[in-house]
């Protein structure tokens, strides 16, 4: 256990599933000591979700949505601090991811909306944002960025082990026995195609309890068509935009019943997750499932049938699988202000370990952030 000073941080995440703002408290030294605290989710209203979707699609007011999503993050922090009885002086830093509206690593471009200075000033707390930009400027993919937190959280877990996060996109972190044994990448779709299908076909945000998929039959011909996408043959590093497969998937499942479409899309996500193992240096003993996808029994069952090694829900290990990404951004914010690396050759393809993030100092009327310690 490290003897370094610990920091109390609040991390924030708005995932590509567009369900709400996750906020979580972490006490950490930014290295191997991680103590997780209270966490909560503030769900988005249907009306805001519609405005966010429209802004991403280019038919809505992105500037207005950016202000609104910032204020929703502010409200989430205030609610969490009240719940945990934390005063502003008790919090050292806030890690703010924002909401990804564009991710094009092949051209070195990513965008997360959210006004870090506005958030800092409203809260009276320093905020670290823009955590992906330095990596991309140095030639990295800018994603995934949570693996170093996964390494700290996994602690004494028997290695090799994989942390599988299933949001709109699915990603894996493979952890070997040594500190440098860190490999991570986006495997392909997570919940996004399933959620989009459910919304389109039955007007629901997601397939609750996997009921739709469990009532359907996988169309193997259409599944094979989707699995032929060149992305799955690319070696890491690699990362994806939420909607990278949208048009191809929509075309592939067109004409299927709601049930068969859901079953086929579940199989698509599960097969691409299982296929990620071809890039691992050694087969994992265990897959630790986090993110919203682990709540879908159809998806979890399909993954368990397709992979080598045990598949477990992160919550069975005492983790909070719904708060993990928010916790990660709290941890990354602490590493950022300490000048510690947050991305690595094995996670984003950056040439050497690199810190990142912009520190926005809480001061009313200030318009500029300051570079985080390097």
Question: What does it look like?
Answer:
The protein is of the alpha/beta class. The chain folds into 2 domains: 7-145 and 323-371, Nucleotidyltransferase, domain 5 (2-Layer Sandwich); 157-317, 2-Layer Sandwich (Nucleotidyltransferase, domain 5), CATH 3.30.420.40. 36% of the residues lie in helices and 22% in strands. The chain is built from 13 helices and 13 strands. The strands form 2 sheets. Strands 1, 2, 3, 4, 5, 6, 12 and 13 form an 8-stranded mixed sheet that branches. Strands 9-8-7-10-11 form a 5-stranded mixed sheet, sandwiched between helices. Residues 365-374 have low confidence and may be disordered.
Assigned CATH class of the largest domain: Alpha Beta
The span between the termini is: 24 Å
User: How many DSSP-defined strands?
Assistant: 13
CATH superfamily of the largest domain: ATPase, nucleotide binding domain
Mean pLDDT: 94
- Helicity level: 25-40%
Q: What name does CATH use for the topology of the largest domain?
A: Nucleotidyltransferase, domain 5
Strand content: 15-25%
Radius of gyration from the CA trace? 20 Å
Specify the overall morphology.
globular
What does the oligomeric state look like here?
A: single chain
Poorly predicted residue ranges? 365-374
How many independent structural domains? 2
Q: What is the helix tally? A: 13
The CATH architecture name of the largest domain reads: 2-Layer Sandwich
Following the backbone from N to C, one meets helices and strands in this order, namely EEEHHEEHEHHEEEHHHHHEHEHHEE
